Amino acid sequence: MEKIRIGCGAGFSGDRLEPALILTEKGDLDYLVLECLAERTIALAQKRKQQDPNSGYDVLLERRIEGLLPLLLQHHTRLITNMGAANPVAGAKKILEIAQKLRLKVKVAVVLGDDVFDQLSGEELSLEGAKSLNSYGKLISANAYLGVDAILPALATDAQIILTGRLADPSLFLAPMIHELGWSKENADLMGKGTVLGHLMECAGQITGGYFADPVTKPVPDMDILGHPILDVYRDGSGIISKVEGTGGLINTQTAKEQLLYEVLDPGNYFTPDVVADFRSVRFEEIGPNELRVTGGSGKSQPETLKVSVGYQAGWIGEGEISYAGAHALERAKLAGEIIQKRIGDRFDEFRVDYIGLSSLHGESLSQDSASYEIRLRIAGKSRDKALAQLVGEEVEALYTNGPAGGGGARKYLHEVLGVVSILMNRNQILPAIQVFES
Amino acid sequence: MSQKLADIAHSRAGDKGNTLVLSLFPLDEKDFPLLAEKVTAEKVNQHLSHQLKGSVTRHEIPEMHALLFTCENALASGVTTSLAMDAHGKSLSYALLEMEI
Q1: Which domains does chain A have, with CATH numbers?
Q2: Domain residue limits, chain B
Q3: How far is B45 from chain A (nearest CA, A)?
Q4: pLDDT value for B1
Q5: What integer pLDDT is reported at residue A43 of this predicted model?
Q6: Name one Pfam family in it (chain B) (predicted).
Q7: Residue A231: left (phi > 0), alpha (psi -120 to 50), or beta?
Q8: Torsion of CA A100, A106, A109, A114, to 10 degrees
Q9: Measuring CA to CA, how many Å separate B40 from each of A419, B37, B44, B58, B95?
Q10: B29 reaches A (C-beta below 8 A)
Q11: Closest CA to A207 of A271, A148, A291, A267
């Protein structure tokens, strides 16, 4: 083909449902990508799978597929998504079940091989702290970031849906480019250019003005109906980013620059399983309203190692919040904070007192002159002991009667903490495979 | 006359583990030399000293009128285990924009 057209309908697991429906219906897409898997999302999914072997795929898979499946088949759009999470096989079976319910026929190709938990010894050293994995706590998952090598065999089948687990986000986009445009994986320059385009797309609404918008300096129209992006990719590795007519949002050089450098540690060396991409020569050109041409970017050889995200049990976080307003609001909130600190603070591995409205996000040094009418006290404590973590919220709630005066709106939260650290693994130790399911 | 970065620049925060990445761009491209001169790695480290516990590296991409600050050991252990309100550090782009120049 001379060009292919790819939409990105979700940029994280909790993303809105309807942009993908609009893209599939009106976007004239060859491929729809849904990127739904963050570092911790897969560890959480592994935990669900341990409790129930039929779960462990994305929690929104059912709702997303129910709406999308008829549209995908009608418009001959193939779906590539990492919603398989920790259990792509169970996810594929769920998709077939939905298809049967809707009286539709569908073929799903599942990409396997990212789960490398059985290969861990626990003695591996983490990239973050150079400490052995076992020293972090009980290990619960290990998923390698697979690249296009893993997904291309699935594209070579005639499956309408490609369901994966952990895969590098840009690879979800680069794979159909290679498959359709006749690119060679040995061509590092094209791998770099395609990775640039994939990286621009992977966070969906972030390039169409979402995470970008500021009503004072960077206003974006109609954000309540924010459209998600469409990418036309050409054989030379250039692309055009646009969105469906009539959707909200904004695509221009500014939104693209912010997204290009998002989560990039070094713009000259962006590591994926497929290539080390160089973003510094990327050029943007506004060729129409919400239409942006992307050229440039390059790549160097494929890395020898793949990154592996390792999940471990990190205990519990308990939180409590309560609000104060009017005269002496901050003084009363601070007194409340001191009371809790004295009562339970030293029993925790980590303990934190925040004043929402003053210093909970940026600390106190940047907010010295701002006096808020309202202050919300927030206390958080981390512990291996669930009951102790729970005590944080209980103690904050008990401020209702035990004072100080005028505390309102107490809330308490408790959640289990899954930590994630990374290791590198030699790529020839990791063997991707595919499996095809048909309704 | 002193002004805030927020008046002349825009920024986005991203995270990778315990590393914070802040991009910085002029709202008007003619202000890029001013940003490049004033917003040094040392100045960013100093300005966000309450948050940053490691080194700051500045990458310059003049063709794109962009600066990128890679801040190590910056997110109280990282999104998965941090006790902070904003464990990702997503709001920290606006902490950078509070800098006076």
Answers
A1: 3-118+144-305+427-438 (no CATH), 310-422 (3.30.70.100)
A2: 5-96
A3: 13
A4: 64
A5: 85
A6: AtuA_ferredoxin
A7: beta
A8: -40
A9: 33, 7, 6, 7, 15
A10: no
A11: A291
How many angstroms separate the CA of residue A20 from the nearest CA in chain B?
A: 24
Cβ contact (<8 Å) for A39 and B10? no
The alpha-carbon gap from A40 to the nearest alpha carbon of chain B, in Å, equals 7
Interchain CB distance below 8 Å, B80 and A258? no
Rounded CA separation A325/A360 (Å): 17
- A420 — contact with chain B (CB < 8 Å)? yes
For A62-71, write each residue's pLDDT tens digit. Answer: 999 999 999 9
Could you tell me which residues come within 8 angstroms of residue A129 by beta carbon, excluding any fewer than 6 positions away?
A: A421
Which of A214, A265, A421 is facing B19, going by the closest CB pair? A265
Which of B61, B81, B94 shows the shortest C-beta gap to A267? B61
Nearest residue, CB atoms, A265 vs list B70, B84, B91: B70
Hey, what are B9's tokens?
């620049």
Helix (H/G/I), strand (E/B), else coil: A427: helix
Q: Residue A282: its chain B contacts at CB < 8 A? A: 64
Contact residues for A283 (Cβ-Cβ < 8 A; gap 6+): A294, A295, A296, B63
Question: With an 8 Å Cβ cutoff, are B14 and A264 in contact?
Answer: yes
Please give the angle made by the CA atoms of B5, B8 and B9, to the nearest 5 degrees.
70
State the ipTM, two decimals.
Answer: 0.95
Q: Å from B42 to nearest chain A CA?
A: 17
Q: Which 3-state string (H, E, C) describes A263-324?
A: CCCCCCCEECCCCEEECCCCEEEEEECCEEEEECCEEECCCCEEEEEEEEEEEEEEEEEEEE
Round to whole Å and give the CA distance between A48 and A54. Answer: 9
Contact B91 A364 (CB under 8 A): no
DSSP letter string, A119-148: G--S-PBPTTT--BGGGGS-EEEEEE-B-H
Closest among A56, A101, A104, A105 to A83, alpha carbons compared? A56
Q: In this predicted model, what pLDDT tens digit does every residue of B2-52 receive, in sequence order?
A: 799 999 999 999 998 889 999 999 999 999 999 999 999 999 999 999 899
Give kind and range of the element (H or E) at residue A238: none
Of the candidates B37, B45, B39, the residue with the CA atom closest to the CA atom of residue B11: B39
Kindly state the tokens that stand for B63.
């063709």
Count of pairs with CB atoms under 8 A, one residue in A, one in B: 109
B4 inside 8 A of chain A by CB: no
Min Cα distance A23 → chain B (Å) is 26
The pLDDT score that the predictor gives to residue A29 is 98
